[in-house]
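Predict fold of Carbonic anhydrase; 202 aa.
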Amino acid sequence: QAVNTSSAARAVPMQSPIDIVTSHVETDHNLGNFTFVNFNSRSAIKSITNNRHTENEVEVSGGGLSATYSTIQFHFHWGDTEHHPGSEHTVDGLRYPMEMHIVSLKKGLSVSQAIEDSSGIAVLGFFLNVYTEINSSFSIDDLIGNVDLTKFYRYMGSLTTPSCNEAVVWTVFQQPINISKNLVSCTVRIYVGSMKVEGHDQ
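Predicted 3D structure, encoded as tokens:
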């Protein structure tokens, strides 16, 4: 079952990130399952991050989204100090070591058009726990394949960096991903400089 955050769970205006207060969450069985296109492509991540496009469109739809969205960006947020402690979102005050965002635009819209549309951007957020080893060649499916994609938090929010446009349909999955330290290092080494990798552990 999917879960939908109650408007009582956060303050207005619709700024992100938020602390997801589970006692304020309302179940919404109508959100349905997600459909992912080309998330199993190991070349897609490199193409997205290096060129912001791929020969084969990487798309997400369903899950209560009102349209099909084209994926343009993939990045991590993490921390190493008291001031930069890890994930952007928290659940009942709990902060995870890392958070991964898959950023997609409503199909057919440019970035400038999408940020003016209240549902122009869809971000899939995943919490991450870090452990030891994994193959350095991977697809999005390899990262999220073991996550229960039917259980997530949904709210209307904003970009988390300036200009903080309130144009984002946020989906934050309940189940964290277990990711290896060497995969994090590999990802940063390949993509830093060619995309926006936001963190404090470089």
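Residues 3-191 form a domain with the Carbonic Anhydrase II fold (CATH 3.10.200.10).
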